[in-house]
Write a structure and sequence with these properties.
349 residues, alpha/beta, Aminopeptidase, 2 domains, eight-stranded mixed β-sheet, 14 strands
Length: 349
């Protein structure tokens, strides 16, 4: 297993972080002008449009035989992966580091850094026709779903990276740590059988987790592998395209997902570096040593001497006057036993 050094990752992230992108609300207008600077190194193609006629772009780089497809913002309000991809683009554009050249010589990389620009514009999960693209892999009613499938079938990648964000409710099981990064090797059918493809997917996840344990130990979880018949990752895995799901989550005091962005960047770079360097993807059992995700968090909790009177709140993101606003909403939960808050306010008797 070839692991990238944390000092290397920290340094290159600091140098190459795309300063034009920050915060949680990333729209097409935020990324469209940034594409221009990559034309010298990447092949950039408009591969189609969204339901509301917004362009969707693909970036391609590398000359190697190992093919990797990566996409982000399938859900428009999940932008951490998009930010991390642009940080990665800057690395390939600007850095002569041996590790990056190894990737480009061994791999051909195709990126779709905003699959759902209509959802991104309105900061919603769904597309312009109210379709959840991550549940449209079978019917493919959405233009964006058809587009992704056409890229998949034409490119025929060995590995895919499906980049998402997860809610602040998740923790790493048996800890009080938020699940800052969660991984999943999707199931191909209801029995969750360990097929050759799933084992290969798990192998890459094992490498990413091993790297992360060197920088954020016990902040990495494993997302449920329940089979979803209409989900993208499950269907791509079933079709023979190994699909790695990365869920970017919460890090303490990181509600803008900038720390999470860094660890997502670390994960993607480690994953593709591992693919570039490896000839055998059969080792997988350490995947099951990654703790499951659990759900113990609320954003804010009010604590009272009689714990039965405790109150929990969650932030709800809304667009108001063209600004992303996080409103604190009381949670109606019959029992808060075992729950904790990212922020807790203790009221004395």
């Amino acid at each position: 297993m070839s692991l990238l050094q944390i000092d290397f990752l920290e340094a290159i992230f600091k140098q190459q972080k795309e300063v034009a992108l920050s915060g949680k609300w990333i729209r097409f207008k935020d990324i469209k002008d940034v594409f221009e600077k990559y034309k010298s190194k990447f092949t950039i193609t408009q591969i189609g449009t969204s339901e509301q006629a917004t362009p969707i772009y693909q970036l391609k780089i590398g000359t190697g035989k190992k093919k990797i497809l990566l996409w982000s913002q399938m859900h428009g309000n999940e932008s951490t992966g998009t930010k991390a991809l642009f940080d990665l683009f800057n690395c390939f554009l600007n850095s002569p580091k041996e590790e990056l050249q190894t990737i480009l010589e061994a791999c051909t990389l195709v990126f779709i850094p905003m699959l759902n620009p209509d959802g991104a514009e309105k900061y919603t999960r769904v597309n312009g026709n109210n379709i959840d693209l991550n549940r449209d892999a079978v019917d493919r009613k959405a233009k964006e779903s058809k587009l992704l499938r056409s890229v998949l079938e034409e490119f025929k990648p060995q590995f895919c990276f499906n980049l998402h964000d997860q809610r602040t409710i998740f923790n790493v099981a048996s800890t009080k740590n938020p699940a800052t990064i969660s991984f999943l090797a999707p199931s191909e059918e209801e029995t969750r059988a360990l097929t050759k493809g799933r084992k290969e997917t798990m192998n890459v996840i094992v490498a990413m987790n091993a790297m992360l344990q060197n920088t954020i130990p016990n902040y990495v979880g494993r997302y449920t592998d329940e089979f979803y018949p209409t989900a993208t990752g499950d269907n791509f895995q079933k079709l023979g395209y190994n699909t790695i799901l990365i869920e970017s989550g919460h890090y303490p005091e990181d509600y803008t997902r900038e720390a999470s962005r860094k660890y997502t960047f670390f994960s993607i770079l480690q994953g593709i570096y591992h693919i570039a360097k490896s000839t055998d993807f059969s080792t997988y059992k350490d995947y099951f040593k990654i703790p499951n995700n659990d759900k113990v968090f609320y954003d804010v909790m009010h604590r009272y001497p009689n714990s039965e009177n405790d109150i929990a709140f969650q932030f709800k993101d809304q667009i108001i006057d063209d600004k992303l606003i996080s409103l604190l909403v009381k949670i109606e939960d019959e029992s808060l036993k075992g729950k904790i808050g990212h922020y807790e306010i203790v009221f004395e008797s």
